[in-house]
Amino acid sequence: MFQVSANQGVTCVKMGKAVLGRTIRATCSFIVDGLAVEGGSPYFKTKLHAFYLENKPDQAVFTHCHEDHAGNVDLFNLLGIVPYAHQEAVNYLSSPPVIPYYRRFVWGTPAAGRSQIVREVIKTEKYVFQVIASPGHSADHLCLYEKKEGWPFTGDLYVGEKIFYLYQNEDLPKMKETLKKLAKLNFSTLFCSHRGRLQKGPEALTRKLLHIETLEEKAKALQLKGFSLSDITRQLLGKKDYMRIISKGEFSKTALIAALLNPGQEGSLIIQPPKK
Ligand SMILES: [Zn+2]
């Protein structure tokens, strides 16, 4: 999938690799008044290059360093743009580590490149985007907010109302705080880097928060009854945790339940991949 749509001044390029006829983990690059918000996935680098040559942005910003958002930093450099990002992302993008195979398969291999530390606002000819620190999904995560238009660009904060998996370095307490903070802004449409344009944005963020809190309550109740981490995971999120095997423990249902039971301890949880 490589679809371009434009609505009320915001162009969205939505792209996703097809596997067995199904698009997996589509991701978006938005262009608004010459500002590219997100740079798409490296798997689509050639197509994006042709698109950006025809619709040339003058500036770019990445909400965080993950490859499906910032893996084409080299492409922007080729276009004469040094994208904005959080300081931690700037360091990461200058020399990204080798990412696990399942991520390379879905989004491609990220390139190294130059980016620069974003300031409090990004101005375009028509708009002013406030840069809002929004840690949770990652420590370097940023959202952008154009107050006059009521446009929040929320990176990977939303993605979906229900979560079934967690990356081991995601921080759930911070994610909850960020969801609360963003839901209070004055807007209706939000721009999600995986879903694209989404109506009733504040309600969507609040529902996601509620989903996490409900799951947390259920997990804790089961823990009090003496169930183990794997039992609780199975009861609340279903039988097999295939992603835990595929990602070698990086992304899993088990990590989500572990984080709900031990808030704030995500980074220190050691979750062994299951024995073969
Ligand atoms: Zn991400």
Task: Give structural attributes.
276 residues, alpha+beta, Metallo-beta-lactamase, Chain A, five-stranded mixed sheet, four-stranded antiparallel sheet, 34% helix, globular, binds zinc ion
Summarize the structure.
The chain has ten helices and 15 strands. It has 276 residues and is α+β, with helices and mostly antiparallel strands.
Could you explain how this protein is built, in words?
The protein is an alpha+beta fold. The protein has helices spanning 45-54, 67-70, 73-78, 87-94, 101-107, 172-183, 201-224, 229-237, 242-246, 253-261, and strands at 2-7, 10-19, 22-32, 35-37, 59-61, 84-85, 116-117, 121-123, 128-133, 142-146, 151-153, 166-167, 190-192, 196-198, 251-252. A hairpin with a 2-residue loop joins strand 1 (2-7) and strand 2. It has a domain at 2-159 and 188-203: Metallo-beta-lactamase, Chain A (4-Layer Sandwich), CATH 3.60.15.10. The protein has ten helices and 15 strands. The protein is globular and about 60 Å long. Residues 267-276 have low confidence and may be disordered. The two termini are 35 Å apart. Helix content is 34%, strand content 23%. The strands form five sheets. A five-stranded mixed sheet has the order 1-2-3-4-5, with no helix packed on it. The chain has a four-stranded antiparallel sheet with strand order 8-9-10-11, with no helix packed on it. The structure holds zinc ion (ZN). Zinc ion binds at residues 64, 66, 137, 156.
